[in-house]
Amino acid sequence: MAKSTKTKSSEKRSAKKNSSSRASGDAPKSGTKAREKDDDAKGSKRKLGLRGAAPWAARHAAKHAAEARARAAEPAPPGSARATIRVPEGADAIKAKIAELHNQTTKIRTLRKRMEKGFFDIGLVLAEIQEQQLYQAKGYGSFEAFLEREIDFGKQTSLKLVKLSKVFQREAALDHGMDRCMMALAALDGEAAPKAAPSTPGPMAPLPLPLKPPMRAAGG
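Structure tokens predicted for DUF3102 domain-containing protein (220 residues):
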């Protein structure tokens, strides 16, 4: 009988140990299940999009974007705010003219460093700017206004250089020099050259007559 009671008590102890081990094994499983539930909840929030947006919000935004693109493709009514930000007609041509004008003005600055040899080419470049009306790309209403604001040596000299390049040949102009060519242009235009002061005095004016005639000698 004593042996039977001992075996029963040992069985009870082993059963308690097994139950405790099962309880300790179930605890981490319940913890992992809770973590999985949290991860599923987070994943569902990510599926909704940024800031928890619903799936229909993305479709609504795509629809509005398509409508905005369609409105932008249509011509804007005159006077509207959208009309002021549209690209003007001929924008590419204006950009090309501005780039060409920049190249020509750079060429003029380079030629001016050797004015005695580059004056004729400066006249050619200025004539090309005038013929192509490149100055309009920067908003100038006339070629003269462009010369006054953009060219360092002024309007009058620039206009003379343009005329010089059209009247004279290159070789002859370079042989005679800028000053002589300018004097020749002045002669062709009929401009009076400054007169030099006379070296000899002119005829003397007659002396004024006396107030009274001289007295005659007595007995004459």
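Residues 214 and 220 are 14 Å apart (CA to CA).
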